[in-house]
Design goal:
seven-stranded mixed beta sheet; alpha/beta; single chain
Length: 348
């Protein structure tokens, strides 16, 4: 009877252990059998809100959790003096291979990550609600990715550079604004603002704002009475006429005569150039110049003779004119020296 009780107890314990193991496997959803890899990144800012076990998300999807938080100099720069160490925070994360590379694919390599880093892949700290906790977000930052932090070592694990968190940027900008506001003389600024308002009031007070408003309303009424529709039609008609004129001008320019005009002008210019460069033209011009010089000298030497000759010609012309007048009045004087006697008829 006692042996049967011991058998039942042992069987119960065995079944309980088996059920517990199955339950743990079911609750863990195969977590122990997942293939994982370690990723590290560095932050040059406070990582408050992150703890070991905090979630790591890739574009909002949970892909792992933080496994270690330390400083970079504790791992890579122990041999350097403290003044030469980088004060970066090192964060290691365990990521599921299936979530990052796909089921049945090997874990990512640094070469594949470098290709994605060049596209803007970064790690940043993201706040989780208003509880003060945070998580790591892996995402593509694009133009806001920024340059990676400078490092003087080769990472032991796979590495993705970090990007400043949004909260840290807001806090930094707020601190800078507060620091600038501390150097601003608020009282003096308000006094200047009051003086500006007072000056503006003094300048605007003499202005006839009411009459200006009435005139503006009158102008707007006149503008409203303008025949805008007819003006628009006339403008459209004018544009149509301009298009037609342009088309007619294009038709004229398409004629063969206009096409050959540049060539004809070029030929004429070439002919003129040949004539101008002809040596005979140059020699002819020289001869004309010499002849003109000779005529000039001759006229300067014979100027008195020419004047006398002109006077004689004028006198001869005058005498000839008198002779012609006498011939018209008394033609007989051309044959007789004296005028003929007066004829006296005989007496009966």
């Amino acid at each position: 009877m006692e042996q049967r009780s011991n058998f039942r107890l042992g069987l119960f314990i065995l079944v309980a252990i088996t059920l517990a193991a199955g339950l743990m496997i079911a609750l863990g959803s195969g977590k122990w059998f997942r293939q994982q890899f370690i990723l590290e990144t560095y932050f040059n800012e406070s990582v408050q809100g992150l703890d070991i076990g905090s979630k790591v998300r890739y574009r909002g999807v949970v892909v792992g959790e933080i496994s270690a938080i330390t400083f970079t100099y504790a791992r890579y720069q122990q041999a350097l003096p403290s003044a030469q160490r980088y004060q970066y925070v090192l964060i290691e994360s365990r990521l599921n291979t299936e979530m990052m590379s796909g089921k049945g694919f090997p874990a990512p390599t640094q070469a594949t990550l470098d290709a994605e880093i060049a596209k803007g892949l970064r790690v940043k700290i993201a706040p989780q609600g208003v509880t003060g906790t945070s998580y790591l977000e892996i995402d593509y930052m694009g133009a806001n990715a920024g340059r990676p932090l400078p490092i003087a070592w080769t990472p032991e694990q796979l590495y993705i550079p970090s990007s400043p968190s949004t909260v840290n940027q807001i806090v930094t900008a707020t601190q800078n604004l507060i620091a600038k506001m501390q150097h601003v003389d608020i009282e003096q600024t308000m006094a200047r603002l009051d003086q500006l308002l007072l000056t503006a009031e003094q300048k605007l007070a003499p202005l006839p704002l009411l009459s200006m408003s009435e005139k503006m309303n009158t102008v707007l009424d006149h503008v409203g009475q303008l025949p805008l529709a007819s003006m628009a039609k006339e403008t459209q008609a004018l544009l149509l006429e301009a298009r037609q004129t342009n088309q007619a001008l294009q038709e004229i320019l398409k004629q063969p005569g206009w096409r050959s005009a540049p060539a004809d002008l070029a030929i004429a210019a070439e002919s003129a150039k040949k004539i101008a460069t002809d040596p005979q033209i140059a020699s002819t011009l020289q001869r004309i110049d010499r002849v003109s010089q000779r005529l000039d000298r001759l006229s300067s030497h014979r100027e008195n003779d020419v004047d006398a000759l002109i006077e004689q010609l004028s006198s001869a012309s005058l005498s000839l004119q008198q002779l012609l007048n006498k011939a018209e009045q008394q033609p007989s004087q051309l044959l007789f020296s004296n005028p003929p006697p007066v004829y006296t008829p005989p007496k009966p």
